[in-house]
Amino acid sequence: MDISSAVASPAAPHGRTVTPGMVITALLVPVVAVLGVLSSLHVEDIDMAWVHRQQAACRLMPFPKVEYVFAWAGPVLGLSAMVVCLLLARWIRRRSGVRIWDTWPGLLAFIVALLNVVAILLELFMLWTTHTPDGSGPILGDCG
């Protein structure tokens, strides 16, 4: 009876090695995802500041171009976090021969990527609201 096939061969991957690069890459996923959400939420702050400046000046003011930058930065950062998670999954699979959730950095990146799906929807909504004209128009208040 030959049991040599049951013993791991020297060519088989040994354990679940976690490298510092893997940890840094895994921590990059939540950082980029949070930055995407914060930039999308900052769009609302920029818009409200613009509305208040118009009301204080009692005149129409040009739309702030920086709002477009922050509105586009949200989905770009959110999708970038997903791409980093995908590349990390490929790296872990190639290096260790295990799935992404079998290592703690991979599990962290995977959970954040799952939560980031909802965040990307928020970021896309904020992008849509930035490019959609206000139906009621600017309300300048009592300027008389």
Using the alpha-carbon principal axes, give the shape. Answer: rod-shaped
- Helical fraction equals 55-70%
Sheet with most strands: none
- Number of beta-strand segments: 0
Q: Would you list the SSEs in sequence order as H and E?
A: HHH
What's the pLDDT, averaged over the residues? 83
The first-to-last residue Cα distance is 99 Å
> Proportion of β residues?
under 5%
- Which structural class do the helices and strands define? mainly alpha
Radius of gyration: 24 Å
Q: Provide a count of the helices.
A: 3
| Low-pLDDT sequence parts | 4-13
In words, what does this structure look like?
It is a single chain. This protein has 144 residues and is mainly α. The chain is built from three helices and no strands.
Question: Which structural traits does this protein have?
Answer:
144 residues, mainly alpha, 67% helix, 3 helices
Topology:
Blueprint: H1 20-57, H2 66-96, H3 104-131
Helix pairs in contact: 1-2, 1-3, 2-3
Can you summarize this structure?
This protein has 144 residues and is mostly helical. 67% of the residues lie in helices and 0% in strands.
